[in-house]
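Supplementary Methods. Inverse-folding protocol.

Structures were first reduced to a discrete structure-token string of length 154. This string, shown here, constituted the complete conditioning input.
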């Protein structure tokens, strides 16, 4: 976890409540070769407080999206496949430097990887990422669009 001093772009997506915005502090974890940020659940109110109504209007309401965080568990909302792949590979890479990802059931996955797969739930609050990927394994074969390859390359 970084404190922002490495030049990490915390305003990258603007829709997650990430450490480094000055509101809350998450303890730092130092490793010899890795750093990163933690994204966690937030609220629409927190977004509006940080970014303002005009920004929310331009980023979401203008596209018919009325909420970022207020989705009901029965909404049917599913993760963006390419972004989910990116997150899975990032969790894998945090534990397995230089090892190729092979499958959701790979026993070489470390604490971060297994935590992400088993303790992150879809909007239904029941389905884990691991269960979802077992139902839709093709997600892990998707390549990001050209304009996102560097950012989502995994």
């Amino acid at each position: 976890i970084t404190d922002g001093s490495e030049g990490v772009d915390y305003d990258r997506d603007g829709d997650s409540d990430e450490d480094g915005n000055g509101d809350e502090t998450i303890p730092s974890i130092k490793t010899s070769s890795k750093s990163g940020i933690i994204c966690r659940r937030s609220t629409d109110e927190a977004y509006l407080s940080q970014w303002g109504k005009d920004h929310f209007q331009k980023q979401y309401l203008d596209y018919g999206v009325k909420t970022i965080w207020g989705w009901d568990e029965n909404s049917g909302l599913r993760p963006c496949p390419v972004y989910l792949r990116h997150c899975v590979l990032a969790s894998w890479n945090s534990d397995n430097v230089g090892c190729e990802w092979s499958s959701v059931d790979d026993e070489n996955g470390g604490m971060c990887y297994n935590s992400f797969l088993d303790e992150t739930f879809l909007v239904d609050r029941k389905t884990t990422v691991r269960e979802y990927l077992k139902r839709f394994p093709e997600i892990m074969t998707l390549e990001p669009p050209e304009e996102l390859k560097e950012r989502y390359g995994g």
